[in-house]
Amino acid sequence: MQEHKLKVARLDNIFLTRMSWQNVGGMILTLKDTGVPKCVFSGPPQFDKYLAAIKSFSGSLQGIELAVRPYTEPEYTDDTMTVYQVPIFGNFLVLKAKELVGLLWIWTTSYLSCFYSCALQIRPEDVCTPSDPGPTFLVLECPSEEFVDPMCENEKLSRYQTRGSESPPALVVHIVPEAVLESNTYKAWMERFGPTTEHLILNENNQTVHNLRSHKIQSQLHLIHPEIFPTLKTFHTEEPLATLTVPIVRGECLLKYQLRPTFEWQRDAVVVADTDEFIKEATEIPGFLERVEECKRQVDKYPEVVFLGTGSAIPMKIRNVSSIILNIDTTRSVLLDCGEGTFGQLCRHYGSEVDEVLCKIVAIFISHLHADHHTGLLNVLLQRERALKFLGKAFSPVLLVTPIQIMSWLQQYHDNCQEILRHINVIPARALLDGAEVTKLRTQDLIRSLLNKLELVKFQTCVVRHCKNAFGCSLQHKSGWKMVYSGDTMPCPALVLMGQNADLLIHEATLEDGLEEEAVEKTHSTTSQAISVGMKMNAKFIMLNHFSQRYAKIPLFSADFNEKVGIAFDHMRVRFGDFGVIPRLFPPLKALFAEEIEEMEERREKRELRQLKEALSVDVANGSVGHGLPSSAPATEGPASATSARSPAGSTKRDLEEPDPDTERKKLKLSRNVAEN
C-alpha cells in the first residue's frame, strides 16, 4: 500500500468477509504503526476475541482506538455510502462451525438536511437536483463448496438478480477459489445477475506484480551475480482456469472499476514490471558493468541460505521483515523467523515451485515474540497444509522451536478464530539451551525428531540481549558445517560462546555506526558491533541482516568491513562456497547505489556536526572548553563511546561484557542528566 501511495492513515472502517488469518493478517499492527487514530472493524463474530488474542504479543495497542461492529447490525451509513452486511451460513459441520463467510457490501449515496440558525430548514431537494442513489456493487467470499448452496439460496442476494426487486449491480466481486468457480451451481448463480453486470475474480490464479520496487532492485542485483541474486517469479497454481459465460475480469494490482459518471475498467495504474528498462537503467551507471564480471563462479548447491526478509519493524517496499529459509539439502529445510509476508516472499522467490518448497519445511525457529518475527507463521502453516494436500503428500506437523510464551497467542487464536494447533509440535527454545534439563518425555522425543529429520548433530539456543525471552540459535550438521543465527540482539557474550568457529554467522545490524546510543535504547546492534561479534566468534563468514528500514536499499559501510563480511538483501541466495565472492560484490553495489550512499553519508555528517555542537555547548556551560575532548572527533556520551565501531579493541570487548540492556539504559539516562545539569 505504501509503495503505491495508498493512504493507510485515511482508513477508518474495514469490512471483513470472514475470520481467517488470510483475511486479517497483520493489518491492525500496520494501522497502529502508521498512526491511524481510530478504526472500526465490521464483520464476522469473534473478532473482538481476535483483538484480545493479538494483544498477547503486540501489547495494549495504545495509540489507536479500535471498535467492532458485529455483522448483526443492519447497516453502516455515512455521508458517502451505505453498507449492508449479509451473513451467509454454510451447512453445519463441526470442523467448520467457527467459520463465517460473505459480507455483502452495498454502496449508495446519502444526503443530510442542514439548518440555518434562523430556523429556516433547507432541504437537499430545494437546492439540488434529485438525489441519485448511486450504483450498487457486491463483494462476497465463498471459500469452499460447502457455502455454494447457502449463498445461491440467500434471499437478500437474489434481490439483485434477474427478476429481483432491486436494480442489477454494476459489479460483483468474487473472492472464490478456482475449484468453486468451476462448479456448475456457482456458474449458474453468476448467470442470474444478467448481462449488464461485470464480475471481478480474486483468487490464487491472479497473476500480477504488486511490489514493483522489489522487482526492480532484484533485476539489477541479478546483473551483479545471477546465482546469488536470482530473478523473482510469479506464483500461480497449475489447475486450469474456469470456463465462464458471464463477462469476467481477473484482478490485478491497482486495477480500478469506475462507478461514476460511467461504468468502466481503468488499467492506467496497473503495475507492470519492465525488466528491460530496469536493466537499461543499471547498465547506464558509469563503471557498473566493469565491476560485475569478476563475481561469477560455480559452487556447491547445499547448504543454501535464502534471505526472504532483511528489514526490521514493518514490511517496506524493498525489504520485508525477518525471515530466512535454510535449505539443508534437496529434501529438508528450516525457517529462521517468519515475519509478516513470508509466504508471499516464498511465492516471489520460487514461483510455481513454492508448493514443493513448503512441503520440505521440517522446522521453524522463532527467535522472539516481536510481531516482525512471527506474524507470517499462521499463513505459512496453512499454505503448507494446502501444498501437502495438493501434491498428495502425507500431512505432518511442523516442529516449532519458539519461546513458549507464543502459546498464549496461538491458543487464543485456535480457540476463537481458526484451528491451527494441529499444524505444530512445539519445542520450547529454553529446552535447547546448553545444559538444559528436559524432563518431559514428549519434549525429549521432539528434540530427537528435530535432529534426525534435519540430520543435525546439535540444535542449540542461547538467551540473547534484546527483549525478554529472546533467543539466538546454532545448527551443527552431520557433515561438519555450523551456522549461527543471532535473531535480534545487542552484542552478546552467550552468542559468541555458542557460535565458536561457526562457518556462517547471520547477525542483525539494525543501525549504522555512530548510532550506538540508539542501538542501546532499542537493544539492537550497529554494523561494526555485529562484525566484532563474528570476529570474536572466529566465524569464517558474517552476513549482516535485519537493517533499519532507513537503509532500504543498502546500509552504510564501515571501516570494519572486510573479506569476511557480506550484506543481506531480500531474495539473496548464499551458499557456503559463495563466501569468497560476496565481498567482491561491494564495488558494483556501491556503484549501483551511489546516490543513496551519498545521501546517507551527508545525513551522518550533519548528525556528527550537530553532536559536536551540542557537546561544545555543554563544555561552554561548564567552563571546560578545550579540555578533555579531541578537536578532530565528535563527543559521545556514556556507553556510546564504549560501543563505537572505531574504538580500540578493548572498548569493543567492554561492549560485549555489559551486564544487560536495562543497566545500559540507566547509564545513558544518568549521562544525559549530568550533561543537562
UniProtKB/TrEMBL annotation:
GO cellular component terms attached to this protein's record: mitochondrial nucleoid; nucleus
Q: Where is the composition biased (Polar residues)?
A: 641-650
Q: Which InterPro entries does the annotation name? A: RibonucZ/Hydroxyglut_hydro (IPR036866), RNZ2-like (IPR047151)
- Organism, by scientific name, is Callorhinchus milii (Ghost shark)
Protein's UniProt name: Zinc phosphodiesterase ELAC protein 2
- Does the entry feature the keyword Protein transport, yes or no? no
Task: Please classify the protein's predominant subcellular localization into one broad category.
Answer: mitochondrion
For this protein, the record's SUPFAM superfamilies field holds:
Metallo-hydrolase/oxidoreductase
UniProt cofactor(s) = Zn(2+)
Enzyme kind, highest EC tier: hydrolase
How does the record describe its quaternary structure? Homodimer. Interacts with PTCD1.
Report residue spans for region: Disordered.
622-677
Which Gene Ontology molecular-function terms are recorded?
3'-tRNA processing endoribonuclease activity; metal ion binding
What reaction does this enzyme carry out catalytically?
Answer: Endonucleolytic cleavage of RNA, removing extra 3' nucleotides from tRNA precursor, generating 3' termini of tRNAs. A 3'-hydroxy group is left at the tRNA terminus and a 5'-phosphoryl group is left at the trailer molecule
- Gene3D superfamilies for the chain: Ribonuclease Z/Hydroxyacylglutathione hydrolase-like
- Protein keywords: Endonuclease, Hydrolase, Metal-binding, Mitochondrion, Mitochondrion nucleoid, Nuclease, Nucleus, Phosphoprotein, Transit peptide, tRNA processing, Zinc
